[in-house]
């Protein structure tokens, strides 16, 4: 079963009655269609035309608004701050994830790959938390969450415990997207060591000595973890689950990602490596906050560099949802690309990279009716008037 089939059969995505969106300027794959009528039936677009017979359709007046495809976010982990707003402070999962769901919709995100870290850390990024999140999204979340949630597991290479459980998740299709991470700094790199410890302190309440002991002991698990990753990647390919590399910063890592047939390259370090990833067939994914902040927070390739060198395929929210909505407007206002092309970076192109290119990310007949109605001349999420998923209005702001 493909990812597209899984989404199609999800009980969370309920079908709707026939509706007609009338009078909006619509962003279609071929450009803007002005003052257009869009017909939707059973949760899918059936027609995008200037004039259409709307008999039998619920008519929704949208004059003066713009209609954009819903945003497809392949990598977003801002939900962690809802679950754990301070170290060792944990909010009940249902409260945290409902708050997060509303934040997603407010940022125009209609398809969300919840980037759950499967790490060696205790607490927020532990296997236990990953398990609880997966159980929630597949269970109680089906009725509580309005945004279409899919599971992105960010597996840390040196987290070797519970390997059989992770294999089962892949075999049972409880995971929709797998990325391979290796954030454990080598002992000899003191700069990365200090950065990683500083990052850990924001999530765990271990003492400095306990953190050092944990990270030192984990160095011994690299070989075992690498062997496990080979099995995980092979299982993912067998079950047609997309796999991504993460933070490739050398030719050797890019070559390894090529051998593993990675579909997506998350955050490659520089232009040359990104170009190699693309040559090997991987889509290059970068974070929208990189663009909004004016560059990478660790000094790697900026989104602006990637755009100027034509090595960028998709943007994701990374750690801040509103940045993903604002990014196409910033690319346009900076003169880097048209708004129409920039919007593809957050809709049709991530959908295609993850295997949903025939279902998500476009306002065109046959596609899921996931879209935003937006007030013009405002590049901030406050311009969103309504959010629709499969033809159902899931959020209304004005």
TrEMBL record:
InterPro entries: Amidohydro-rel, Metal-dep_hydrolase_composite, Metal_Hydrolase, Metallo-dep_Hydrolase, PhnM
BP term (GO), one: organic phosphonate catabolic process
All copies of domain Amidohydrolase-related, residue ranges: 296-394
Pfam families with a match to the protein in the record: Amidohydro_1
Domain of life according to the entry: Bacteria
Gene3D superfamilies: Metal-dependent hydrolases
Single GO MF descriptor: hydrolase activity, acting on carbon-nitrogen (but not peptide) bonds
Listed name of the protein: Alpha-D-ribose 1-methylphosphonate 5-triphosphate diphosphatase
Organism: Plectonema cf. radiosum LEGE 06105
């Amino acid at each position: 079963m493909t990812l597209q089939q899984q989404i199609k059969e999800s009980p969370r995505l309920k079908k709707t009655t026939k509706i007609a969106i009338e009078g909006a300027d619509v962003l279609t794959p071929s450009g803007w269609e002005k003052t257009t009528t869009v017909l939707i039936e059973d949760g899918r677009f059936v027609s995008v035309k200037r004039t259409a017979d709307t008999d039998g359709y619920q008519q929704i007046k949208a004059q003066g608004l713009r209609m954009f495809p819903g945003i497809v976010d392949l990598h977003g982990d801002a939900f962690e701050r809802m679950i754990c707003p301070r170290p060792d402070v944990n909010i009940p999962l249902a409260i945290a994830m409902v708050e997060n769901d509303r934040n997603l919709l407010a940022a125009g995100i209609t398809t969300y790959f919840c980037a759950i870290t499967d790490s060696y850390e205790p607490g927020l990024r532990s296997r236990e938390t990953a398990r609880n999140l997966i159980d929630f999204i597949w269970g109680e979340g089906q009725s509580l969450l309005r945004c279409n949630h899919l599971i992105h597991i960010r597996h840390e290479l040196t987290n070797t415990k519970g390997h059989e459980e992770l294999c089962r998740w892949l075999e049972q299709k409880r995971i929709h997207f797998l990325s391979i991470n290796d954030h454990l700094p080598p002992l000899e790199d003191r700069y990365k060591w200090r950065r990683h410890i500083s990052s850990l302190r924001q999530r765990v309440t271990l003492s400095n000595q306990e953190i050092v002991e944990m990270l030192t002991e984990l160095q011994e698990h690299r070989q075992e973890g690498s062997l496990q990753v080979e099995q995980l990647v092979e299982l993912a390919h067998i079950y047609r689950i997309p796999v991504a590399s993460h933070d490739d910063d050398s030719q050797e890592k890019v070559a390894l990602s090529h051998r593993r047939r990675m579909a997506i390259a998350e955050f490659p370090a520089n232009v040359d490596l990104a170009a190699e990833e693309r040559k090997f067939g991987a889509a290059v994914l970068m974070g929208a906050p990189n663009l909004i902040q004016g560059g990478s927070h660790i000094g790697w390739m900026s989104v602006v560099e990637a755009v100027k060198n034509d090595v960028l395929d998709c943007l994701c929210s990374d750690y801040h949802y509103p940045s993903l909505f604002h990014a196409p407007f910033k690319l346009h206002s900076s003169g880097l690309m048209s708004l129409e092309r920039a919007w593809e970076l957050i809709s049709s192109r991530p959908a295609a990279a993850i295997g949903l290119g025939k279902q998500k990310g476009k306002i065109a007949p046959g596609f899921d009716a996931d879209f935003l109605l937006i007030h013009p001349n405002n590049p901030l999420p406050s311009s969103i008037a309504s959010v629709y998923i499969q033809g159902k209005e899931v959020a209304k702001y004005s």
